[in-house]
Design brief:
Helix 5 links the parallel strand 11 and strand 12. Strands 1, 2, 3, 4, 11 and 12 form a 6-stranded mixed β-sheet that branches. It contains 14 helices and 27 strands. The radius of gyration is 31 Å and the shape is globular. Helices cover about 25% and strands about 30% of the residues. Keywords: ATP-binding, Nucleotide-binding. This is Hsp70 protein-domain-containing protein. One of its GO terms (molecular function) is ATP binding.
Amino acid sequence: MAPKKGSKQQSKQASRAPSGASTPAVRAEPVKLAPAAAGINFGQSFSSVAVINKEGLADCIANDDGERQIASALSFNGIEEYSGVPARVQLVRNAQNTILNFRNLLGKTYDEVKSVKQPYNSAPIVDANGVPAFTVEIDGKPTTLTAHECAVRYLTVLLSYATDFLGRPITHAVLSVPAEFTPAQTKALTAAAEEAKIKVLQTVTESAAALAAYAQTVLDEEDKVPSIDRNSVVLDIGGSSTTVSVVAVRDGLFVPLATVTDSNLGGEAFDAKLMEWFGKEFTKKTKVPLEASNHRALMKLRLQVEVTKKSLSASNSASCSVESLAEGMDFHGSINRMRFDLLSSAIYSKIIAKVEEALEKAKLDVLQIQEVVLVGGTTRIPALTNKLYGFFNEDNTTITARLDSDEVVARGTALQAQSLLSADNLALINRLSTETSVLSPSALSAPIGIVIGEDFHALVEANTPLPTRRIIEFPISSSSGSQLLLSFSEGEESVKVEAPPPKPAKKAGWFGGKKDEDEDEDEEDEEEEVRTLVAKPTKALADLVVDVDSKAAKKGLKVKVTIVVVEGGKGTVTAVQTVEGAKVAQATF
């Protein structure tokens, strides 16, 4: 029997020179592949992984089931181990061997979390030598897995998806962490990743990752280019929690101003409203009550309403169908978006209240926010976006979700990983600490700007990290004369509130006669007060007298102002006309 040709034998034959070739084969140098980097968004409910594709773009990858949002869940059935959505499906019949919500247990002691109740009758938290753990049955034997071991298993699975997608090992990664994570939790997450064979370059907050994704994304022509200095709100609605972060974006630097988190407000709150609605519909149609003790039926319904909720984000109505929901009775129902919004109105109000709370904590008015970045699939609900537009000033604030809100954090971490690996100094990468913390440089307490007439125009915004430099060019009038006086000052922003103009008095009766007593007495809604953001100078810093060539001014030349501010608020300002040989004016403050 002829031996089988192995892969090595085939590759030798394929590499042979063609018969009759006169040129000897040249040994090719091995191709050195660039380090492969990944960005990992390890969420409490769902996770995602992004890599840099062949086009150099951050791409969120799918697992074997085609899912880009991978449920943060593990389940065991006999010798089989499941992760992602297949693990969540096990909640219907195998809840006691299914592990959920283990990320937030990292870095905590059992005493800190012993009162936490796991959802959906999944494996409860137990004490394993003072650390939180879960006891499940694996291959017929009770096995205790700590939260750390669960994270290692799950991160190993995520890493395998990225490796399979790229076709080569992942050498480095950047991980996102919630803003509320303590240093101990961040360290524990990094340790779990390292044990899963993930070389962690850095950890970044989820809000910073989302902002980084937008900062490094090429805009479409119709997109409005954001200012390099702006105040941003990152609204992150996860499966079980909502986090609102207020961040001062200053020329590529992200300065956290305030963070508010509600651990009981998330996408699952909307699921609960749908479950309540469809549960009543099922009972109305079948006369079969959906008891709270019927875990299997409730879990089947919950898994289906998650799909219904996603459908309502894209269409005006959606259906919900479950075979053999309870007592062998099938269920099919539908709901329109208007009904869903009525059911969810209280949840919308709670989310807006969290945004208000974050702004108050940051000591900013809604008029001082230029950008709102949406994170999480729940933010795609149209009514929520409309509520946000109603809360913010539509003329002043851009609410953006150009990138997939489910993927934006993972993309941001992948771009950050790529940026770090692209650094010329590879030794710097090797010295990077995996315990990277948020830098806390001193920041400018009040804006510094130029005074024109009675108006103040900020050149360096408040909350800008120091030291900093700004260069601004502005046109000058040909009638400015031979010299131009520039005044620089600190300033402050405030909100000017004006009452709406009075409405003209109505004549008696709609048609000039006496008003009929039966006419509708309801008055039109009163107009809202007019709120305007104004800035005014508060403390004079420096005056500059700039020599001006009026002939050059007629040609459209400008004055270039350079302002440098160091720690303590001290600085230097220079101004010069953009013409060869112009005299530079300088002052310190």
